[in-house]
Structures are given as structure tokens and as C-alpha cells.
Automatic annotation (TrEMBL):
Organism placement in taxonomy: Eukaryota, Viridiplantae, Streptophyta, Embryophyta, Marchantiophyta
Localization per record: Cell membrane
Name of this protein: non-specific serine/threonine protein kinase
Source species: Marchantia polymorpha subsp. ruderalis
Keyword Glycoprotein: yes
Domain Protein kinase: 798-1080
Length: 1147
């Protein structure tokens, strides 16, 4: 219309121009202007509808790769734009931007609601943020919405329930919160709904049962409450129902058995209780059923034997009892049967032979009894049999060798007897055979040594005899051999030493004789060699102790002779972490080259014939931690002061040598040392002050040194004391006895004084508040100069308007002093008495002296009138809790990336390690939580509120002290809640919780968690059965990482699992944690560096595998030789330590 009017106007103007005699040239000009106007207006009109809506959408898109470059106003036809499809009327009917490789970000514009003919909207696999626009409800023709794998937040708009034609709704892998709208039940055409991997909560709406066309439902990886609505039983077309890791509780409704079309039902890793409904036997089309990792009990219903289409059945990790139903043998198509980690009894059903398609069954960790049925050998398709940790008896059926496809057989930890049958590898497919911890006798079958497919053989802790077959060293795929704790004799085959595939060899605790074959250690990639407790002799061959590959070497309790390092001695890069040569007949000096074994955490050379001095080079072994033992040798000279550099060392044994001189004063710096034995030497001088507590616990550790004194003030050389012999001492048995008697008497006197004091305090009231207030004091522990008046003026006498936080015990104010310095002033509120005031004075005096980069500096303390003030440096960013909340709420100025989170992790660890190991006395925080961690402008963490636990405890009444638990819910270590036993391991647990907060983006007691679930139990529930832990990591943080940082996140997740171990004795120390994190930081600089790094000092080989960029294997070694991976994998953590899970799980 406008164009026509313009044309008419131009025509009239031309006529007027002619009348005026302007000529024909002006007419041509005016006509050209009219044409240009028509073209322009026509172009704008083409974009006023769908094109304009798409351009408006593009304005909200961050398109770093230029994927939408052809979307522009100059092209009037949006139907040719990338990702756009139109109908015959040239109206946009489909927008598909899923193939742009996560290059699109920004928000989803409400203008998409103007595409009223839109039928398909696919924005999946990008990085869109923000809410889902409610205006989409205007696109009434929409059939498919796919916003999966983005970073959308907010709630699911109830308005989507207006899209009556919607058939598929996919919102998976986002950050959506809140409940699932009941209005979605109005989508009568809906056949697919996928809301998995979000933060949805509340009950699953029963109204979804009003969608009669529903075919596929996936609500996994959310935090729902309640159970599956029984109304779902009306969904006759439902084929797939997945709510794994959904937070479900309650029972499973029998009405689900009415879903006659159901093919896949996955409800694993929830908290479902009760029984499996017998009505599940009606699901005759069911192909996959997983109820793993719930709390289901009673027996497995025999009706499941009617589900004739079942291919996979996983009921592991529940509380099922009773026998395995023989009716399961009716499942002809069953390929996978997993019933492990239950309480089932009875025998292995012979009816399994009827499951002709069965590839794997796992009945391990139950209470199954009886013999193994011979019928197992008649299962033609079986590949993996796992029956470990049961009560099975009798022989191993010889017919198992007839299984043509058998690749893995695990019968460990039973009571099987007789011999290992010949022919178990007849198929030529056997890769792993584990028969450890049984009562097997006889010899190792020779045919196992020619089994070319064999990769792992574990026969430890049996009663096997005979020789080691020579063929094991010739198997090209053979990696692991464990024959330990048997009665095997003979020599070690030469062929084992020349194997180019072996990674682990453990033949310890046998009766082997002869010498070590020369090839050992020279043929990579051998990582672990344990020949201990045998009758081996001869010299240690060159290349073993200084091997370039061996990480753990144990040759102890044999009769080896000669030097520790056989010539020629060449030491380049030695990854050795544990070297144990004790109890042999080695001679010569301790090689100075051992100082180059930089990765050693344990060195045991005791009980040999070594002589000469202790090399000062041993002081370079800075990672020595568990033990340094040089006892029972003929070592002479003085103890090198350089050994004082071994700050991590926990146990030192130099006893029964010929050492002389003073104990170096540098030993006072060895803060981790808790076991020392220097008895029976010729040491003189005074014991280090820090060793006095060791003397009280282990007084015999210092006897046999005639001139060794307890202190400089005591002359311990008594001329009247007769020395028994050259191993006698003034710290003789009599002296030790006198020390003990003195201690006992002191304890008795102390007890009497305590009784008298208590009586006194019962009779006398505590002094009045006025007397308390007379003890005014104002201390500044730094070089700052300010007064109480400055503090009060800057806060207007602690006015509430200056308060920045408040708890039950304190209020914190922000004080900007005239000098420009900003303080955080904490006003304490507690019941004051003499004892509390004394504790306060002592604690603040101690804390005021502590200075560490990752601990908040106590600047000053004030006791004035009724006030008790603690003054700290104020940190601008606030608490870690604040930053996590801001990131989660998507504050635009805050993106808390992994680099900053890792800085917080390692900084906190350093601060806690300083409190635990470098302060005297050590300080246990007891209330580590994200609100007690402050961040400076560079996100460097500083821990606050340390050293005040005594004050808090002291101000409680006797009643409250027994009823209240120090700490914060969600961060409290489980043992502290019921034992009240305070150790540094409660801080380690709380620190692990904060690591999980940093890694997952969830809070310790996240509101999205079900009742009685915290971040630790949520994490363990997820990882216990998932092949991939990545979904629990904060998606936006993880996706923003490069491959190196992603690896680092996964490594730190494992550290968090160690720190939150249910058993406090299995948690690492904070010093261990610092070393791990620092190594992760160093090792992440190269993709393959992790495998050969210091990480191996702390974790067992194979704990984490299957990642590093794409698929780089990562090797770890045990945190301690005496702490196995099983120690870390307790009942609630067992699967996290699994090295060979069925699916190749990372944990």
C-alpha cells in the first residue's frame, strides 16, 4: 500500500515538473527514486515477519565462528539461511542449529515465539544460557523442541503445556531447576520427554500419565523426591522409562506392571525401598531392567522368569536375600545377569544352563554356598563369570575348560579346594583368571603358561606347590602375575626376567631359591616386583634397584648378599617409590646414588651388614614419608644433619648400629615424625625437644646410648650405674622404670588436684563480671598502628549497618580505618567466666603468631568492658560460599572457572597442612566449611576461624557439650558425630566436602538433594555404578576446560573421594593432599606426564584409567605400601576402587 502511494505521488510530481517546463531529464530522475524506494520497502516488508524474528534471535546469539553469517537483512529470503527450512508458503517451519559444534552461545530470544508456523526447533549441543522463553507457547504448531546439552537455567515454563501438537520435548543436560510442571500433562500428542541431567526436584507429576502417546521418558540425573507415580501404569504405549540417579525414594508401584509395552526400565542408583513387584512378570516385552544400587530387599520374584525378552538384568548392590530363583533360567535371550553385592544365599542355580545367550553373570559378594555346578560348562555364550567373595566349596569343575568363549573367571575369596583343573584356557580366549584366597593345592597347570591370550593370573593365598612354569615369561600379552602366599619352590625362571609385557610380578611369601635372573629390571615396562619372604640368594643383579621403570621393589627377608647397587652403577631417571631390602645379608656402604632416587617414599635397608657412614645425600629424598629404616647394620659416624630435611618422614629407625655424636638439632624440624628408634648406638648429647613425647610412648627406642641425655639441665651419666655391656646405657631399664614411675606419680597428683579444683569451683562462684571487665587489653599482632577508638569510630560503635555477617557465636563488621586499612571485626558472644577468658587469651596469643599465606591473619584482639573483639584483614571478594552462589546464580561478573577453583583447592590444602603439621601444638580447625574460607582479589583462599575451637567448647555448659557437635551439617566427618573424637582427619573430611562443592557446583547439603542425602553420599551413589563420573562435575566449568584441565578435575575428584572416606584412618593427611595437588599441577603441563609423575606416590596403579585427552592411560600407585586400594574402597566406597569394572569405569 505504502509503495503504491509513493509511486502515485511520484507520478504527480513528474506531471507538475513538466508543467513547469523542467524537461524530461527530471522525469527520469524521479522515476529512478521511486523504483529504489519500492525495492527498499519491499525488502523490509519481506523481513517484517519470520525473517525479522530470526534476526532478532540472532542479536542475542554469541556466534564466535560465524555460523550464522548468512543471516542478514540484505537477503530477503530467510529460507536460504543456515539451519532454516520453510514450507510451501515460504514460512519458517524448522530451525535446526544443532550441527554447529557448540559454537553458539548467548540466550534464546523471546522473538522465536513470532515464528507461528514453526514445527521443529532444535538448538541442541550448543552453549545457550538463560531461561526458556515462555513465548514459545505461541508456536502452536510445534512438534519437536530439542534444547538438549546447553546451559539453560531457570524453570521449565508451564506455558509449554499449551503446545497441543508437541510430540518431542528434549531439555536434557542443562541447569534447569524446580519441579516438572504439571501442565505438561496437557500435551496429549507427546511421545518423547527427556529432562535428564538437570537440577529438577519435587515429585514427578502424575499428570504425565495424561499423555496417552508417551513412548519415551527419561528423567535421570535429577533430584526428585518420592517414587514413580502409580498413574504411569496407564501408559500403555510407554517403551522406555529411565530415572537413574533421580533421587527417588519410597516403593515401586505394582501398577507399573500394567505398562505392557515397556521395553527398557532403568531405576538404578536411587533410594527405592521395599520389594520388586511380582507384576513385573507381566512385562513380557521388557528387554532391560536395572534396579542397581537401591535399598530393595526380600527375595527376587520368580515372576521375572516370565519376562522372556529380557536381555539385561541388573539387581546388584541391594539387600536381596534368599536363593537365586531357578526361574531365571527361562530367560533364553538374557545376556547380562548382575546380582552382586546382595545378601543372597543358596547355591548357584543349575538352571542357568538354559540361558543360552548369557554372556556374563556376576554373583560376587553374596553368601552363596555349595559347589560350583558342572552345568556351568554347558553355557555356550558365556564369557565372564564372577563369583568372588562367597562361601563356595568343593573343586573347580574341570568342564569349565570347555567354554569356548570364556575370557574372564573370578572365583576368588571362597573355600574352593583341590587342584586347579587343566584346560581352563582350552578356548584360547581366557584373559583373566583370578582364584586367590581359596584352599587350592597342587601345582600350577602347565597349560596356563602357554595360554597366549592370558593377561592376568592371580593365584595368591592358596596352598599351591611346585615350580613357576617357565612359559609365563614368553606370553606376549601377559601383564600381571600374582602367586604370593603359597608354597611354591624352585627357582625364578629366567624367562620372567626377559618378558617385554609384564607389569607386575608378585611371588612373595613362597619357598623360592636361587638367584634373581639377570634380565629383571632391564626389560620395560615392569612396574612392580615383589620377591620378599623367600630363600633367594646371590647378588642383586645390576639394573633392578636402579631400574628405569620399577616403582615398587620388595626383596626383603631373603639372603641376598653383596652391595645394594651392583656395579657398574648408572643412575639416570629412577621412578622408584618404595625400596625394601631389609633382612638380607647385603654389605658395603649405603650408595650415595640413592640420593638421586627423588621419588622414594619408603626406604628400608635394615637388618643387613652395611657399614660406613650414613650418606648425607639421603637428605635429598624429600618425599620420604612412610619409613626410613637403617637398623641393625654396622653403620658408623654421626647422624647427618641433612636428614632433618625429610619433613614428611613419619618413621625413622637407626637402632643397633655404631653411630656416635649428637642428634642434629635439625631433627626438631621433622614435624611429621611420630616413630623414632635410635637405641643401642653411641649417641651423646640431648634428645631433640620434639622427641620427648616419643620417649613417653616408646621409651625403649632410646636405650643403649650411655651418654644420651633427656635434657641439657640433667646429667644423665651416673657413675654409680653399672653398664651391663657395650649395649648398656644410662637410659637403662631402671632409668626407664624411674621415668614411668615419675609419670605415674605425677598423674596421681594431677588427678588429686583436679578433684580439689572441681570441689572448689562447686563451692565458690565465679568472679563477678565487673572483675572480668577490669582485665581490659588491646593487642595488635602485626606492624599496623591503630586503636580501639579507630575501630569504634569507623563502625559507629559497631552499628548493625556495618555488619557483614552473623552467626550464633559472633557478628562480623567491616571497619575502614583512617589509614585506609580495612578490617573485618568479629564481635564474640559467649558466656564469660574466668576459664573462658583464660582460654580466649591463650588462644588469641597463639593464633596471633601464626602467619601463613592461606590463613587469615589475626591482626588484633580487644578485651574491653563487655566487648571481646577479634580483628582480621578484610578480603574483598568475600567467602567461598558467596562466590559459589554468585556463579550458580549466573551473576554476569562471576564465572568461577577451574583455574580459580584449583587455586582455592591447593591453597586451602596448604593452609590446613600448616595448621596440622607445622604448628606446635597442632591446630585442628573442626569447622571447615565454605563460609570459613575467604578469597582475595586473585581468588587466593585464606582460612578463617582457626584456633578458636577451645573457646567455643569451653563456653558450652556440660549439657550442651554432650549434645552439640562442633562443625556444620554436611561438612561433619561421620565418626565425629558419634564418637566426638577430635583428630585432624575431621578437617580432612570437611576439606573433601569443599572439593566436591568446587567440582560439582552443588552445596554440601544442597536443597536439590533428597532427604538424608548430602554431597558425599550423592557423589558415592553416582560413582558407585556409573562408567563415567563426568556428569557430576559442574557442566559449565568442565566444558570450559581444555583437555589438560579436564584431566585435572577428574584427578581432584579422586582426591575428594579419599578425603571423604568413611573410615578416618583411610583418609590422607593434609600434607599428602598438598603433595598430590601440587603434582597434579605440575604433571598437567603434559598430556602423558601424569603416568610417570609423583601422583604415583599416593594412589594404586590403575585407580584412574581411561582418560587423558582422549584415551591416555594414567597410572597411580598406592598412598602407602600398607594401605591398599581396598582400604580406600570401604563398604560405601568399594566400587570407586575397582580396577577392572565390567564397563571400564574410570573409578
Amino acid at each position: 500500500m505504502a509503495a503504491a502511494a509513493a509511486a502515485m505521488g511520484c507520478g504527480q510530481l513528474c506531471r507538475r515538473c513538466r508543467c513547469a517546463g523542467l524537461g524530461s531529464r527530471l522525469s527520469v530522475f524521479v522515476a529512478a527514486v521511486a523504483v529504489l524506494f519500492l525495492v527498499t520497502v519491499g525488502g523490509v516488508q519481506g523481513l517484517s515477519g519470520d525473517g525479522a524474528a530470526l534476526l532478532d534471535f540472532k542479536r542475542g546469539v554469541v556466534d564466535s565462528s560465524g555460523a550464522l553469517a548468512d543471516w542478514n537483512a540484505s537477503d530477503s529470503n530467510p529460507c536460504s539461511w543456515s539451519g532454516v527450512s520453510c514450507n510451501r508458503d515460504r514460512r519458517v517451519m524448522a530451525l535446526n542449529l544443532t550441527n554447529f559444534q557448540n559454537n553458539l552461545a548467548g540466550s534464546i530470544s523471546a522473538s522465536l515465539g513470532n515464528l507461528t508456523k514453526l514445527e521443529i526447533l532444535n538448538l541442541s549441543n550448543n552453549m545457550f544460557k538463560g531461561p526458556i522463553p515462555t513465548t514459545l507457547s505461541k508456536c502452536v504448531g510445534l512438534r519437536i523442541i530439542d534444547f538438549g546439552s546447553n546451559q539453560l537455567s531457570g524453570i521449565i515454563p508451564p506455558e509449554l503445556g499449551l503446545l497441543k501438537n508437541l510430540e518431542q520435548l528434549t531439555l536434557a543436560s542443562n541447569k534447569l531447576r524446580g519441579p516438572v510442571p504439571e501442565e505438561l500433562g496437557q500435551l496429549v500428542s507427546l511421545s518423547l520427554i527427556d529432562l535428564s541431567a538437570n537440577d529438577l526436584n519435587g515429585n514427578i507429576p502424575s499428570t504425565l500419565a495424561n499423555c496417552p502417546a508417551l513412548d519415551y521418558v527419561d528423567l535421570s540425573l535429577n533430584s526428585f523426591s518420592g517414587s514413580i507415580p502409580e498413574e504411569f501404569g496407564r501408559l500403555q504405549l510407554l517403551r522406555v522409562l529411565q530415572v537413574s540417579y533421580g533421587g527417588l525414594s519410597g516403593t515401586i508401584s505394582p501398577l507399573l506392571g500394567n505398562c505392557s509395552s515397556l521395553q527398557i526400565l532403568l531405576l538404578d542408583s536411587n533410594s527405592l525401598r521395599g520389594v520388586i513387584p511380582a507384576t513385573f512378570g507381566n512385562l513380557t516385552l521388557l528387554r532391560s531392567l536395572s534396579l542397581r544400587s537401591n535399598k530393595l530387599l526380600s527375595g527376587i520374584p520368580r515372576e521375572l522368569g516370565k519376562c522372556s525378552e529380557l536381555v539385561s538384568l541388573d539387581l546388584s548392590n541391594n539387600e536381596f536375600i534368599g536363593p537365586i530363583p531357578k526361574e531365571l533360567g527361562n530367560l533364553k535371550k538374557l545376556r547380562l545377569l548382575l546380582l552382586s553385592d546382595n545378601l543372597m544365599w543358596g547355591s548357584v542355580p543349575s538352571s542357568l544352563v538354559n540361558c543360552t545367550s548369557l554372556v556374563e553373570f556376576d554373583f560376587s559378594h553374596n553368601n552363596l554356598t555349595g559347589p560350583l555346578p558342572d552345568s556351568l560348562a554347558d553355557m555356550p555364550s558365556i564369557q565372564n563369570i564372577r563369583l568372588a567373595n562367597n562361601l563356595l566349596v568343593g573343586p573347580i569343575p574341570r568342564k569349565l575348560g570347555q567354554l569356548k568363549n570364556l575370557t574372564s573367571l573370578d572365583l576368588s575369596a571362597n573355600k574352593l579346594n583341590n587342584t586347579i583343573p587343566v584346560g581352563l584356557c582350552s578356548s584360547g580366549e581366557l584373559r583373566a583368571l583370578t582364584l586367590s584366597q581359596n584352599l587350592l593345592t597342587g601345582e600350577i597347570p602347565e597349560d596356563l603358561a602357554i595360554c597366549s591370550s592370558l593377561e592376568s593370573l592371580r593365584l595368591s593365598s592358596n596352598r599351591l606347590s611346585g615350580f613357576i612354569p617357565i612359559g609365563f615369561g614368553q606370553l606376549k600379552n601377559f601383564q600381571s602375575l600374582d602367586l604370593s602366599s603359597n608354597n611354591i619352590s624352585g627357582i625364578i625362571p629366567i624367562e620372567l626376567g626377559t618378558s617385554t609385557s609384564l607389569l607386575e610380578v608378585d611371588v612373595s611369601h613362597n619357598k623360592l631359591q636361587g638367584s634373581i635372573p639377570a634380565g629383571f629390571g632391564q626389560f620395560p615396562p615392569l612396574l612392580m616386583l615383589d620377591l620378599s619372604v623367600n630363600k633367594l640368594t646371590g647378588a642383586i643383579p645390576p639394573g633392578i634397584v636402579n631400574s628405569s621403570t620399577i616403582i615398587r621393589l620388595d626383596l626383603s627377608r631373603n639372603s641376598f648378599s653383596g652391595p645394594v647397587l651392583a656395579p657398574p652403577v648408572t643412575v639416570t631417571t629412577v621412578p622408584m617409590e618404595s625400596l625394601n631390602l631389609h633382612h638380607n645379608q647385603l654389605s658395603g656402604n649405603i650408595p650415595v646414588e640413592l640420593g638421586q632416587f627423588q621419588d622414594l617414599t619408603e626406604l628400608q635397608l635394615g637388618d643387613n651388614n652395611l657399614d660406613g657412614p650414613i650418606p648425607i645425600q639421603l637428605g635429598k629424598l624429600l618425599f620420604l614419608r612412610s619409613k626410613l629404616s637403617l637398623r641393625r647394620n654396622n653403620l658408623t659416624g654421626s647422624i647427618p644433619a641433612q636428614l632433618g630435611n625429610l619433613m614428611l618422614l613419619e618413621a625413622l629407625d637407626l637402632s643397633e648400629n655404631k653411630l656416635s655424636g649428637f642428634i642434629p638439632s635439625s631433627f626438631n624440624n621433622m614435624l611429621s615424625l611420630n616413630r623414632v628408634n635410635v637405641s643401642y648406638n653411641n649417641l651423646t648429647g640431648v634428645l631433640p625437644a620434639r622427641w620427648m613425647t616419643i620417649l613417653e610412648t616408646f621409651p625403649s627406642s632410646f636405650i643403649g646410648n650411655p651418654d644420651l641425655c633427656l635434657s641439657a639441665d640433667v646429667d644423665c651419666v651416673d657413675p654409680d650405674v653399672t653398664r651391663a655391656n657395650d649395649r648398656g646405657s644410662s637410659l637403662s631399664s631402671a632409668a626407664v622404670a624411674s621415668i614411668v614411675v615419675t609419670c605415674v606419680l605425677a598423674a596421681v597428683v594431677f588427678g588429686v588436684l583436679v578433684v580439689i579444683a572441681r570441689g572448689y569451683y562447686r563451692r565458690e562462684k565465679i568472679k563477678s563480671d565487673k572483675n572480668l571487665e577490669d582485665k581490659n587489653e588491646f593487642k595488635v599482632f602485626t606492624s599496623d598502628t591503630f586503636s580501639l577508638s579507630d575501630v569504634m569510630k569507623s563502625t559507629q560503635n559497631l552499628d548493625d549497618s556495618f555488619a557483614i555477617s552473623s552467626t550464633r557465636n559472633s557478628t562480623v563488621y567491616k571497619a575502614e580505618l583512617p589509614s585506609g586499612k580495612v578490617l573485618a571485626v568479629k564481635k564474640l558472644t559467649f558466656k564469660r567466666d574466668d576459664l573462658a577468658e583464660k582460654v580466649l587469651s591463650t588462644e588469641t596469643e597463639t593464633v596471633g603468631k601464626i602467619k601463613h599465606h592461606n590463613l587469615v591473619q589475626l591482626v588484633g584482639f580487644c578485651r574491653w568492658q563487655g566487648l571481646r573483639l577479634l580483628m582480621y584483614d578484610h578480603l574483598p571478594i568475600g567467602t567461598l560460599s558467596d562466590v559459589l552462589d554468585k556463579h550458580r546464580d549466573e551473576a554476569p561478573e562471576f564465572f568461577f572457572d577451574w583455574k580459580a577453583r584449583f587455586r582455592v583447592s591447593i591453597g586451602m590444602a596448604r593452609g590446613l597442612a600448616y595448621l596440622h603439621h607445622d604448628c606446635s601444638p597442632k591446630i585442628i580447625h573442626r569447622d571447615i566449611r565454605s563460609t570459613n574460607v575467604l578469597l582475595d582479589a586473585n581468588f587466593e583462599p585464606q582460612i578463617s576461624d582457626f584456633g578458636l575451637s577451645k573457646l567455643i567448647d569451653q563456653t558450652r555448659t556440660a549439657a550442651s557439650a554432650t549434645s552439640k557437635v562442633a562443625g556444620t551439617y554436611g561438612y561433619i566427618a561421620p565418626e565425629f558425630a558419634y564418637t566426638m573424637n577430635v583428630t585432624e582427619k575431621i578437617d580432612v573430611y570437611s576439606y573433601g566436602v569443599i572439593l566436591l562443592e568446587l567440582l560439582t557446583g552443588r552445596r554440601a547439603s544442597d536443597p536439590t538433594f533428597p532427604k538424608d542425602v548430602n554431597i558425599v553420599s550423592w557423589m558415592r551413589s553416582f560413582i558407585s555404578s556409573s562408567p563415567n563420573p563426568e556428569p557430576i562435575l559442574a557442566a559449565d566449568v568442565y566444558e570450559s576446560c581444555d583437555a589438560r584441565s579436564k584431566n585435572q578435575m577428574l584427578l581432584v575428584l579422586k582426591v575428594a573421594s579419599y578425603c571423604t572416606n568413611h573410615q578416618d584412618t583411610n583418609r590422607p593427611t593434609m600434607r599428602d593432599v598438598v603433595q598430590m595437588l601440587e603434582q597434579f599441577d605440575r604433571s598437567s603441563s603434559s598430556v602423558s606426564g601424569v603416568g610417570s609423575s609423583r601422583v604415583g606416590s599416593f594412589m594404586q596403579s590403575g585407580v584412574l584409567a581411561g582418560f587423558s585427552d582422549s584415551d591416555t592411560e594414567t597410572l597411580f600407585v598406592d598412598m602407602d605400601q600398607n594401605t591398599t586400594d581396598e582400604d580406600y574402597a570401604t563398604a560405601d566406597d568399594r566400587s570407586m576402587g575397582s580396577l577392572h569394572s565390567r564397563s571400564g569405569s574410570m573409578f
